[in-house]
Design brief:
With 148 residues, the protein is mainly alpha-helical. It has seven helices and two strands.
Amino acid sequence: MMLSKTCKYAVRAVIYMAANYNENQKCGIKVLAEELKIPAPFLSKILQKLARFNVLISNKGPNGGFALAAPPDQISLYKVVEIIDGKELFESCALSDDTCDGRREASHVCALHDSYSDIRKQLISTFKDKMIADLLTEADSFPGKMKF
Protein backbone atom coordinates (compact mmCIF):
# COMPACT_ATOMS: atom_id res chain seq x y z
CA MET A 1 0.00 0.00 0.00
CA MET A 2 1.41 3.31 -1.01
CA LEU A 3 0.12 6.69 -0.02
CA SER A 4 1.57 9.62 -1.91
CA LYS A 5 3.96 11.91 -0.07
CA THR A 6 1.28 14.60 -0.29
CA CYS A 7 -1.22 12.29 1.39
CA LYS A 8 1.24 11.36 4.14
CA TYR A 9 1.77 15.07 4.80
CA ALA A 10 -2.00 15.60 4.95
CA VAL A 11 -2.52 12.76 7.42
CA ARG A 12 0.37 13.95 9.58
CA ALA A 13 -1.00 17.50 9.62
CA VAL A 14 -4.50 16.36 10.57
CA ILE A 15 -3.10 14.15 13.35
CA TYR A 16 -1.01 17.07 14.61
CA MET A 17 -4.09 19.30 14.68
CA ALA A 18 -6.02 16.55 16.46
CA ALA A 19 -3.29 16.29 19.10
CA ASN A 20 -3.63 20.02 19.68
CA TYR A 21 -7.40 20.11 19.15
CA ASN A 22 -9.25 23.09 20.53
CA GLU A 23 -12.41 24.28 18.81
CA ASN A 24 -11.45 27.94 19.25
CA GLN A 25 -7.77 27.77 18.34
CA LYS A 26 -6.27 27.77 14.86
CA CYS A 27 -2.86 26.37 13.86
CA GLY A 28 -0.81 28.81 11.83
CA ILE A 29 0.84 27.49 8.67
CA LYS A 30 4.32 28.56 9.82
CA VAL A 31 4.06 26.63 13.08
CA LEU A 32 2.62 23.56 11.36
CA ALA A 33 5.30 23.61 8.67
CA GLU A 34 8.10 23.94 11.23
CA GLU A 35 6.72 21.25 13.55
CA LEU A 36 6.07 18.79 10.71
CA LYS A 37 9.16 19.75 8.68
CA ILE A 38 7.09 20.29 5.53
CA PRO A 39 7.65 23.25 3.17
CA ALA A 40 5.06 25.89 4.11
CA PRO A 41 3.80 26.67 0.56
CA PHE A 42 3.27 22.95 -0.15
CA LEU A 43 1.58 22.33 3.20
CA SER A 44 -0.64 25.36 2.64
CA LYS A 45 -1.95 23.92 -0.64
CA ILE A 46 -2.64 20.57 1.02
CA LEU A 47 -4.51 22.16 3.91
CA GLN A 48 -6.50 24.42 1.58
CA LYS A 49 -7.69 21.33 -0.28
CA LEU A 50 -8.75 19.69 3.00
CA ALA A 51 -10.60 22.91 3.87
CA ARG A 52 -12.43 22.90 0.51
CA PHE A 53 -13.73 19.43 1.38
CA ASN A 54 -14.73 20.48 4.93
CA VAL A 55 -12.15 18.47 6.85
CA LEU A 56 -10.54 21.71 8.01
CA ILE A 57 -11.64 25.27 8.64
CA SER A 58 -9.44 27.99 7.20
CA ASN A 59 -9.36 31.61 8.35
CA LYS A 60 -7.18 34.34 6.86
CA GLY A 61 -5.64 37.25 8.68
CA PRO A 62 -3.53 37.84 11.78
CA ASN A 63 -5.58 35.44 13.91
CA GLY A 64 -6.11 33.03 11.06
CA GLY A 65 -4.90 29.53 10.44
CA PHE A 66 -6.33 26.06 10.13
CA ALA A 67 -8.40 23.95 12.50
CA LEU A 68 -10.31 20.69 12.34
CA ALA A 69 -13.85 21.20 11.07
CA ALA A 70 -15.11 18.39 13.32
CA PRO A 71 -13.85 16.56 16.38
CA PRO A 72 -11.06 14.04 15.61
CA ASP A 73 -13.38 11.12 16.35
CA GLN A 74 -15.58 12.19 13.43
CA ILE A 75 -12.90 12.42 10.72
CA SER A 76 -11.98 9.13 9.04
CA LEU A 77 -8.61 8.25 7.61
CA TYR A 78 -10.49 7.18 4.46
CA LYS A 79 -11.85 10.69 3.93
CA VAL A 80 -8.43 12.33 4.17
CA VAL A 81 -6.84 9.77 1.82
CA GLU A 82 -9.71 9.98 -0.67
CA ILE A 83 -9.53 13.80 -0.79
CA ILE A 84 -5.79 13.90 -1.39
CA ASP A 85 -5.06 10.73 -3.38
CA GLY A 86 -8.49 9.90 -4.76
CA LYS A 87 -9.91 6.39 -4.72
CA GLU A 88 -7.06 4.77 -6.67
CA LEU A 89 -5.66 3.03 -3.59
CA PHE A 90 -9.06 1.48 -2.98
CA GLU A 91 -10.03 0.72 -6.58
CA SER A 92 -6.84 -0.08 -8.49
CA CYS A 93 -6.07 -3.54 -9.83
CA ALA A 94 -3.12 -5.34 -8.24
CA LEU A 95 -1.43 -6.15 -11.57
CA SER A 96 -2.83 -3.89 -14.28
CA ASP A 97 -3.59 -0.22 -14.74
CA ASP A 98 -7.33 -0.90 -14.74
CA THR A 99 -9.70 -0.07 -11.94
CA CYS A 100 -11.42 -2.93 -10.18
CA ASP A 101 -14.84 -2.83 -8.60
CA GLY A 102 -14.17 -6.10 -6.80
CA ARG A 103 -16.61 -8.17 -8.84
CA ARG A 104 -15.25 -11.40 -10.30
CA GLU A 105 -17.58 -11.16 -13.29
CA ALA A 106 -16.02 -7.87 -14.40
CA SER A 107 -14.65 -7.88 -17.93
CA HIS A 108 -11.03 -7.55 -16.77
CA VAL A 109 -9.75 -9.56 -13.83
CA CYS A 110 -6.11 -10.18 -12.99
CA ALA A 111 -4.40 -13.31 -11.67
CA LEU A 112 -4.49 -11.89 -8.12
CA HIS A 113 -8.12 -10.79 -8.29
CA ASP A 114 -9.60 -13.14 -5.71
CA SER A 115 -6.76 -12.76 -3.20
CA TYR A 116 -6.42 -9.01 -3.64
CA SER A 117 -10.17 -8.46 -3.50
CA ASP A 118 -10.18 -9.65 0.12
CA ILE A 119 -7.21 -7.41 0.94
CA ARG A 120 -8.91 -4.44 -0.73
CA LYS A 121 -12.14 -4.97 1.24
CA GLN A 122 -10.16 -5.13 4.49
CA LEU A 123 -8.19 -2.00 3.56
CA ILE A 124 -11.35 -0.03 2.78
CA SER A 125 -12.99 -1.20 5.99
CA THR A 126 -9.94 -0.31 8.07
CA PHE A 127 -9.56 3.16 6.54
CA LYS A 128 -13.29 3.93 6.90
CA ASP A 129 -13.41 2.69 10.50
CA LYS A 130 -10.15 4.33 11.58
CA MET A 131 -10.83 7.83 12.87
CA ILE A 132 -8.09 10.42 13.36
CA ALA A 133 -8.71 10.17 17.13
CA ASP A 134 -7.95 6.43 16.90
CA LEU A 135 -4.61 7.13 15.22
CA LEU A 136 -3.77 9.60 17.95
CA THR A 137 -4.67 7.07 20.67
CA GLU A 138 -2.60 4.37 18.99
CA ALA A 139 0.37 6.71 18.62
CA ASP A 140 0.15 7.58 22.32
CA SER A 141 0.37 3.88 23.20
CA PHE A 142 3.86 3.57 21.68
CA PRO A 143 6.91 4.23 23.83
CA GLY A 144 8.59 7.48 22.93
CA LYS A 145 7.17 10.30 20.89
CA MET A 146 5.07 9.93 17.76
CA LYS A 147 6.97 10.81 14.62
CA PHE A 148 5.49 13.61 12.60
